[in-house]
Design goal:
heterodimer; A: 122 residues; mainly alpha; B: 312 residues; alpha+beta; 5-stranded antiparallel beta sheet; two-stranded antiparallel sheet; 11 helices; 42% helix
């Protein structure tokens, strides 16, 4: 972080706005679709920068509740520990509790990847 | 894109199969084949389609088996493009009749003809009447289709190289709640918008039999009503087109709810593993597609829908 502005989220937002506004308007068909996908990818990245830290705190707490442990404390290692436990049947007695805990984790992932998805009807 | 197939090979194969072919054959590329090489063949007013493996690529599915299932489905009254011949056209491929219609999902959704969902149900019912005997030489019938489906998601998950605890939880639930084996029939394997060829009167053909296999017919019913294939039209659960009642009406029998739910759950696990795999393939340099890369993040949608289904 240099501290200069525009910062990373602002730059990403500016490029995404240019893709969907200026560029997409000049394109058609497949190329237009690609520009929209590109903007979507950038929007996900911007939200991850904004929300990632806060989510990590909540996810650490969730993994602790799930009994997943890792020496590094790295999120990927915590995911791995949880995956191994689940596959080994550690949560078989109370699978729905694990479902509820992980659902909160997925809701956070959706706030980044696809806001609104968890609240629209299935 | 590879070069066009040899017109002499194509012409001979058509004539041998009893098709009336003139002196001149026109061969042009056809859009729409995501993983296969598609060509429009024409002679005067007659038209055919050649669907072959991309030359030089190792095919993971068999065009010969695809031809065999299309023959069997056609005979059983399933709407499919009439299959004509299987052969070597520079790479293994099949010739079939060209069928006019619309398959692009958003266009079908914009103007879907009345009765389309019932027709999809009726097509699945007809598929259930296919005699699987002759097909078993090409495609072994699993003793336990549910177990086989779990194994194949497990394989896909392993290939992502990522720990995915939510999908792992799905697999665990699926293993603990697996219904006992029921009847085995032909499963299309990718029954969704995009593979329905639709005309003014409704369903003209089920296309793209690449992923067909022998298994539980409920697999197709779950896949066709899975949320990713509704294109946002969640009030119309079957392919964004209509209701479950309409599908059952065309089908003519009521699927067992718990068994169907099991297939709903695994549909989401399979879709989630597929999405996650796209990110892995990008990292491995197997593709450079932006769309497939961003698709990787849709794993969270599949996980959410899967957990909702498990909670019931």
């Amino acid at each position: 972080m240099s501290g200069d502005r525009p910062d990373a989220p602002e730059l990403i937002a500016a490029v995404a706005a240019w893709l969907t506004g200026d560029l997409a308007g000049q394109l058609e068909g497949g190329a237009r679709f690609q520009a929209m996908v590109a903007a979507q990818g950038l929007a996900i990245a911007a939200r991850e920068i904004q929300l990632g830290e806060g989510h990590r705190v909540l996810d650490d707490r969730m993994f602790a509740e799930l009994g997943a442990e890792s020496a590094s404390g790295d999120p990927v290692d915590l995911c791995r520990a949880a995956a191994v436990d689940i596959a080994a049947g550690k949560h078989d007695d109370d699978l729905l509790n694990a479902v509820a805990l992980l659902k909160a984790h997925v809701r956070r992932k959706l706030e980044i990847a696809r806001p609104g998805y968890a609240d629209s009807g299935a | 894109m590879s070069g066009p197939p040899d017109s002499v090979l194509v012409g001979d194969a058509l004539r041998e199969a009893g098709e009336s072919v003139g002196e001149e054959l026109r061969i042009e590329p056809l859009a729409g084949g995501a993983s296969r090489d598609l060509w429009l063949i024409s002679s005067g007013s007659r038209r055919w389609v050649l669907r072959r493996d991309p030359p030089g690529e190792i095919a993971l599915t068999s065009r010969e088996a695809e031809f065999a299932v299309q023959v069997a489905a056609h005979e059983a009254g399933v709407p499919v493009p009439r299959p004509i011949a299987f052969g070597d056209f520079g790479s293994p491929g099949m010739l079939m009749e060209f069928v006019e219609g619309e398959s692009i999902a958003r266009r079908v959704l914009r103007a879907s003809p009345a009765g389309l969902v019932q027709q999809i149900g009726a097509a699945v019912a007809a598929l259930g009447r296919v005699d699987i005997g002759p097909l078993e030489q090409l495609m072994p019938a699993p003793a336990d289709p549910c177990q086989k489906a779990v194994d194949s998601v497990r394989e896909e998950l392993a290939l992502t190289g990522e720990p995915l605890p939510v999908l792992e939880l799905g697999l665990r639930w699926l293993t603990l709640n697996s219904p006992p084996p029921d009847r085995v029939g032909v499963v299309h394997g990718d029954l969704r918008l995009g593979n329905f060829l639709v005309g003014d009167g409704g369903l003209v053909a089920l296309m793209d039999w690449e992923f067909w296999h022998l298994g539980d017919p409920l697999e197709d019913l779950a896949w066709v009503r899975a949320r990713p294939w509704r294109f946002g039209a969640d009030d119309r659960p079957v392919a964004g087109l209509g209701s479950m009642n309409e599908l059952v009406e065309g089908l003519g029998w009521e699927p067992e709810p718990e068994r169907l739910r099991w297939w709903d759950v695994i549909s989401q696990a399979k879709w989630g593993a597929y999405c996650a795999r796209q990110a892995a393939l990008r990292r491995e340099g197997e593709h450079a597609s932006l769309e497939r890369t961003v698709l990787g993040r849709r794993v969270a949608e599949a996980e959410w829908d899967m957990l909702e289904l498990i909670e019931g």
